[in-house]
Amino acid sequence: MKAIGYIRVSTQGQAEDGVSMDAQEAKVRAWAELNGADQVVIFKDEGVSGKRSDNRPGLQAALDVSEKGDALVVYSLSRLSRSTKDTLALSDLLQKREIDLVSLSEKIDTTTAAGKMVFRLLAVLSEFERDQISDRTRAALQYKRANGQKTGGDVPFGYRARSGRLIENEKEQEAVKKILALRRKGKSLRDICQALEAAGHRRKSGSTQWAPTTVLRICEREAKSHTD
Question: pTM of the prediction?
């Protein structure tokens, strides 16, 4: 096992009054010796905030050299990151690469069974956070659709966009109503296409050629809009 030590202070005052770089390194080396690490490599970020991981060259270098079976050792999780989101993302990355995480202050050590449990809890929290974001996004899109606002992508057939809102396109709405009426009568998608072409209805592209898949999407979209 190789111990990859990562140490950080964000300000000179923290280096003097808090846990200094030297003190952090001593703790990391003590853990490595106690746990029989074959090699100890130390990476440092001095005077760098812990809010983000992508702007810390020391941390990025530590992650780059870490391999399966190694242990990333930090004095505390606050040295690894000040952001819960970033901490969870880093723990997810380490888990995928089968690299252990050791945080000495919180006594998190995934080289042990108890530590692995904590590590998995972090992964569960990460998944929970992603699910919450997904739920919030879905709710926001539903609210926008309910209020006639465009939610990204192409403007759907039957509508036009104005100032971020969807407004009915009267000409295209005639075709939509025809599609739905014929579908209610049990007409096939191909029959509906032929009826649209015979009546001269144009698609968004201006083409008078209609495809069954296009008609089906319009039917499904209209059915969904009446159930939302």
Answer: 0.52
Three-state SS sequence of 97-154: CCCEEEECCCCEECCCHHHHHHHHHHHHHHHHHHHHHHHHHHHHHHHHHHCCECCCCC
Nearest one of 133, 134, 106, 136 to 121, comparing CA atoms: 106
Closest to 42 measured CA to CA, from 90, 86, 78, 74: 74
pLDDT digits (tens, 9 = 90+) for 68-90: 999 999 998 888 887 777 777 88
Of 154, 185, 187, which Cα lies nearest the Cα of 172?
154
Give the per-residue pLDDT at 13: 46
**How far, in Å, CA of 175 to CA of 196, rounded?**
7
- Number of Cβ within 10 Å of residue 31's Cβ equals 19
* Cα–Cα dist 45/55, whole Å: 10
Q: How far apart are the C-alpha atoms of 80 and 53, rounded to whole Å?
A: 8
Q: List residues with catalytic annotation.
A: 10
Q: Which two tokens stand for residue 129?
A: 């956070």
What CATH number was assigned to the domain covering residues 2-131?
Answer: 3.40.50.1390
Q: Locate the domains of the chain by residue range.
A: 2-131, 159-225
